[in-house]
Amino acid sequence: MSEVDLDAFLDTHGQLAEAVAGLNEEQAKWKPAPQIWSVQEVASHLVDHSFVISFRIRDILAGTAARLPAFDQDAWVSGQHSNEGRLSDILDAFHAILEYNALLIGRLSEEELEKTGVNFKGESVSIKAIIRGFVRHVQGHLGQIERIRQAAALALEKA
């Protein structure tokens, strides 16, 4: 797999686990405002995104001509009451989906990794691009988690 870094893909779980390490339940669920995600909600969103890319990859491999689905990330997070669960369960789910997808990705030939589908914007996107995009997406949310952690530490210290 010349241009797909499977290690970077799999490492997103370790990075996420490290980003949330040491948070107690109050810190993980703290929100700076009702419409802004908590750390736990960000982690839940990453599980949702894992489901979506799982479907997109499989849809491309199946040769489906339909546009790859988009999803309303805020509605998904709020609709499933993400802040009411347990962060450890979310991390376990994220890890399991990554591992399962990595098994599939590891079986794909270079030609299969180059297969494309049409995303919700009407752009052609390859399986390779989906995988690289997922890793970048996680990186962006790790920064978001750090910002929320810092804000929570200040707010909870004052409370």
Automatic annotation (TrEMBL):
Protein name (Swiss-Prot/TrEMBL): DinB-like domain-containing protein
Limits of the DinB-like domain: 11-145
Signal sequence extent: none
Pfam families hit by this protein: DinB_2
Gene3D superfamilies: dinb family like domain (1.20.120.450)
Coiled-coil segments on the chain, per record: none
Cross-referenced InterPro entries: DinB-like, DinB/YfiT-like
Taxonomic superkingdom: Bacteria
